[in-house]
Amino acid sequence: MIDKLNLTIYRPPDFNFLELQGEITEAQRDKLYKYMCNLDRCAVLYRPHKFSEETNFSIPYTKIDVNPKYFECFTELFQYLSQIFGCTCLSLDAFNIARIDIAADIEDLTMKSILATLNIKRIRGDNFNVYKETIYGGSDPKIRIYDKTKEIKARSKKRSSSVTQNEKALLKSGKTWIRFEIQICHLNMTLQDLVNNPESLISYFDRLEFLRLDGNESHGIMQFLYRLINRKNRKEMEHLRNNDLVEKIKEVFLSNVSAWFAEKEPF
Length: 267
Hints:
This protein has helices at 15-21, 53-58, 74-85, 111-117, 148-156, 165-172, 191-196, 221-228, 244-261; strands at residues 2-9, 23-26, 33-38, 42-48, 62-66, 96-107, 118-120, 128-131, 134-137, 142-147, 177-185, 208-210. It is 30% helix and 27% strand.
């Protein structure tokens, strides 16, 4: 699935639509965009003002911060973008992707077993940490691994947060779901490129690997954590051996993203 999408475009939004449908605030000079409008399902930032007039003119006029999870499919999202810009003839090539988060939720794992076997390739040692039961690795791309079930439960207690139907289904299943998420910035891709080939992002998950552990080898902190895992729960470690889990993550991502981009009837 695609968990977050930041789009930039040189076209200005429909100001009348923003005024009617959202709440507009003006930012300080140190912010790149002068105005931000919070809509029901996204944030629209527009009119660069931080630098000189010449530099500001070279920056995309509008930035859209949106989470695709609030849309049943890409068709619905694109119709929403068309409303924001007051145009039904928007070109997908006009939107550049400034950031995209790709993710997959895998059931019946624990953070302890993942930490005991996880290796993230091609990152520096100081770019790996664990904070509040979330694993962080790298910077761009940036990997996050956390207990999605706990995150949804915590968010559902906040009045200002919304929980989607898919997230409610995860809770209703009664299972533990671990989110494998990768944040990618500075990629040379338009929205049209993404629609044409979302499978091209799947290789980012190859940065994950899960090492063989039998409890008798010397693997430092990983060996120590392995010993802390209850024997009853060690069965899940089989999913982590020989990179089987990486393939499963890729399959889940590909299945979800293909379904989301599938052509559907207009809303």
